[in-house]
Amino acid sequence: MKFNLFRRRFREKPAYQLGIEPGAPDSLGSYVYALIDPKDEVPFYIGQGQNERPHGHIREAVEAERGKREHTPKTKKIVEIWRRGQTVEIMFLRRNLDKNSVDHVEGALISALSLGRGRTLTNIKSGNKSKEHGLLTLDGANNEGAPLVFPSAPEAVFLFNIEKSLKAGKSVYDATRGDWPFGKGVLEHDSAIAVGLENGVSRGAFTIDGWQAVGSRWAFFGHDADASDLVNKNWRMILKQNRYWQRTGKLILEFDGQGAYRTIWGAKNREWRRVPI
Fold first, then answer.
1. Which position among 13, 78, 165, 220 has the lowest Cβ density within 10 Å, counted as fewest Cβ atoms?
2. Are strands 217-224 and 250-255 parallel, antiparallel or unpaired?
């Protein structure tokens, strides 16, 4: 019997999976909830919603089992619990919240439960407003007061988002050098400098001596740049003017040394702009 249960594909929600009774959501308003594994009573997903939002995850698991969508870590966990003959527990952590509060409560819980070695969450996203209000290291907090960047060097400056690589334990240099998806022609800039950014603040600047192919991507090799005007500076105002940065984490800029810059890769508009103050 256990063997059959283990092998079974769920074409519908198992009868033993408990759900929200009709009428119950009316008293909850907007809420933050957790999906919990009854085996160890540890949350494996944090979400927010209204009405019967947690039931959506149950439907996703059934659809994945039926081949109508790809399985995710969350749906795999749900099915794992079902195959043990158990029900996914749903816990409402905070309820009757306004929109601003629900975002912050969800984000704070995801951040807290994503720390340390005992990480169990299957959330793919870190929650709404995580960029503005999310996790920040001590170094990141100290960098909040970094002065605005005002480059004097006229070289092309490659900007790279290195937050994830730093969290993975890479050095600033290794995180910045990549590998990055570029067309070969993009790399042909004389006197180029690469700058690695964490949360919009520059952690390091490196003179690019050359590039090497890493599969279909490229990584530069170089050395520390003598560019104190580029390091430990706040680039956020420039990044906000370049939407492509939000999508790719890469830009190539050029500065005139007199307070103006233009985007030479990563934007259609290549006109000179003043560095925002």
1. 13
2. unpaired
Distance (Å, whole) CA 62 – CA 79: 8
Distances from the Cα of 16 to the Cα of 88, 148, 178, 217, angstroms: 9, 58, 49, 49
pTM for the model stands at 0.56
Residue 51: which of 28, 81, 73, 68 has the closest Cα? 28
> Which residues are CB-contacts of 276 (< 8 A; sequence separation ≥ 6)?
148, 237, 238, 240, 241
In the structure, what pLDDT confidence band is assigned to residue 1 with cuts at 50, 70 and 90?
A: very low
